[in-house]
Write a structure and sequence with these properties.
The structure holds two protein chains of two kinds. By secondary structure, chain A is mainly α. Chain A has 15 helices and no strands. Chain A is 73% helix and 0% strand. Chain B is an all-alpha fold. Chain B is built from four helices and no strands. The chains are: A mainly alpha, B mainly alpha. Chains A and B meet through helix 4, helix 7 and helix 8 of A and helix 1 of B.
Chain lengths: 300, 97
C-alpha cells in the first residue's frame, strides 16, 4: 500500500512539471478532434436550448422558457410517453428473442455456423433498406403481411398497418426488434461461450436440470454482458430516428410520435432553440439510466 | 434416445424454423419484390415469386442518377476506409512499444 501511495503522489507532482509539456503536446491532436467534434456541438446545443434562436435570427437568452413551453405542450407529453412505451417493448422483445436464439444456437445443431451467420443479416442491412422492406410488407394493397393474414383467414379486409393509429406503433416496434435483435444474439452467444464448461458439469452432478442450469450457471455468467448490452442498446433505441421516420414519419397523427421525431419536427419549423430543448430533454433520463446500470455492474 | 429428449429436440428445431422465417422472410421478400413490376404487384398480390422480370434492374442500370449515386457511394466508402486505415495504422507502425 505504501508504494502505491508514493507512486500516486509522484504522478500528482509531475502533473504540472515542465517536462510534461511534451506529453500534453502529444495528446493535443486527439483533444482538438474531441473538443471540436464532440465538445463544441454539445455545448452549442445546450446553449441554443436556452435561447429563442430561429433560422436567420440568432436569438436571445431566454432562460428555461423553452423547457417550460415543452412541458406545457401536449404533443411533447405524447411523444415522451410513446418513447417510453416504444423503448420498453422493443428492449423486452430484443432481450427475449436475442437470449432465446443465443441459447438455441448454443445447442449442437446441424449447420450451426450457417444459422449463426444467417441470423445476423438484419443487423447487417442498412437501416434505410430494412425499413423500406418493412413498409412494403405492411402495405395494405400489395404487402406480404396482409396477403398472408388474408390467406390464412385472420383478416377479411386489408389493414393499413402503418396508417392505422392503433396498429402503427406495434408495427414499427416489430420492425425495430427485427432490425436490432441480432446485436443481442451475438453478444449473448459470445458471453455464453465464455462460461466455463466445468460449471455445467458440476451443476449436472449436483442434479440440476436444463432450466436450473440456465438459471444458476448461464444467467449469472452472462449478467455483466446483459447489463452492458441493455445499456448500449437502450441508448440507441431512445435515439432511434430512422426506424420511425422511414416507416411512419411519426404519424398517423401522433400515434408513433417519439422524441427524436418531435425534435426534428420543431427543427423543420425553424425553431432551433425549441428543437434543442426537446432533444436535450431526454439526456437527464439517459444519464440516470446509465448511472444505475454502471452502479449495478460495479457491484459484481 | 429417450422420449423427452426427442421432444425437446423437435421443439427446438421448430423454434429455429420459426425464427429463421421471421428473420429471413423480409430479406427474401426484398429480393423477390425487386424482380416484380408495379402492375404485377397490384394485379397478382402474392408474397411468392411470380411474374419475375429484370425490368427494375434494367431501369436502375440505365438511369443516370443510379450511376452517379453508385459512384458517390464508392468514393465515400473508399476514401473513408483509406484515410481511417492510414490514420489508425500510423501509430503502431511508427512507434516502438
Amino acid at each position: 500500500l505504501a508504494t502505491a501511495t508514493i507512486v500516486v503522489s509522484k504522478s500528482r507532482r509531475k502533473f504540472f512539471a515542465p517536462d510534461s509539456i511534451f506529453g500534453y503536446l502529444t495528446i493535443l491532436p486527439a483533444m482538438t478532434v474531441l473538443i471540436g467534434f464532440f465538445g463544441y456541438p454539445l455545448f452549442y446545443e445546450i446553449y441554443s436550448s436556452f435561447t429563442n434562436r430561429t433560422v436567420g435570427h440568432s436569438g436571445k437568452w431566454i432562460g428555461f422558457q423553452n423547457y417550460i413551453f415543452l412541458f406545457h405542450d401536449p404533443a411533447f407529453k405524447i411523444a415522451a410517453l410513446n418513447t417510453l412505451l416504444y423503448v420498453m417493448i422493443v428492449q423486452i422483445g430484443k432481450f427475449a428473442l436475442g437470449l432465446a436464439i443465443a441459447l438455441l444456437l448454443m445447442k449442437k445443431l446441424p449447420f450451426r455456423k450457417l444459422w449463426r451467420s444467417l441470423v445476423l443479416i438484419p443487423y447487417a442491412l442498412p437501416g434505410f433498406v430494412a425499413y423500406m422492406v418493412w413498409r412494403v410488407i405492411y402495405n395494405p394493397d400489395v404487402g406480404a403481411l396482409n396477403i398472408f393474414l388474408h390467406d390464412i383467414g385472420v383478416l377479411s379486409h386489408p389493414v393499413a398497418f402503418l396508417s392505422n393509429s392503433s396498429w402503427a406503433l406495434p408495427s414499427v416496434i416489430l420492425a425495430t426488434i427485427w432490425k436490432g435483435f441480432p446485436f443481442w444474439t451475438i453478444m449473448f452467444l459470445a458471453a455464453l461461450q465464455s462460461v466455463p464448461k466445468e460449471l455445467y458439469e458440476a451443476a449436472a452432478l449436483d442434479g440440476c436440470n436444463g432450466f436450473r442450469k440456465f438459471k444458476h450457471v448461464s444467467l449469472p455468467g452472462i449478467r455483466p454482458v446483459i447489463l452492458i448490452v441493455f445499456m448500449l442498446s437502450t441508448i440507441t433505441v431512445i435515439n432511434s430516428f430512422e426506424a420511425v421516420w422511414l416507416t411512419t414519419a411519426g404519424g398517423p397523427g401522433t400515434a408513433t410520435l417519439i422524441l427524436p421525431i418531435f425534435a426534428y419536427k420543431s427543427l423543420v419549423n425553424f425553431q432551433i432553440g425549441q428543437s434543442a430543448a426537446a432533444a436535450l430533454a431526454l439526456v437527464p433520463v439517459i444519464f440516470l439510466f446509465v448511472f444505475f446500470i454502471l452502479r449495478k455492474l460495479k457491484k459484481d | 434416445m429417450p422420449v423427452g429428449e426427442k421432444r425437446l429436440k423437435i421443439s427446438s428445431y421448430l423454434f429455429l424454423a420459426l425464427i429463421l422465417i421471421f428473420v429471413l422472410f423480409p430479406v427474401y421478400y426484398m429480393v423477390s419484390v425487386s424482380f416484380r413490376t408495379q402492375t404485377s404487384m397490384f394485379n397478382h398480390p402474392s408474397f411468392l415469386p411470380v411474374d419475375l422480370v429484370l425490368k427494375n434492374y434494367r431501369i436502375a442500370i440505365h438511369s443516370h442518377e443510379f450511376l452517379i449515386s453508385l459512384r458517390n457511394s464508392l468514393l465515400v466508402s473508399t476514401v473513408t476506409t483509406g484515410v481511417g486505415l492510414y490514420l489508425a495504422s500510423w501509430p503502431p507502425i511508427r512507434s516502438r512499444f
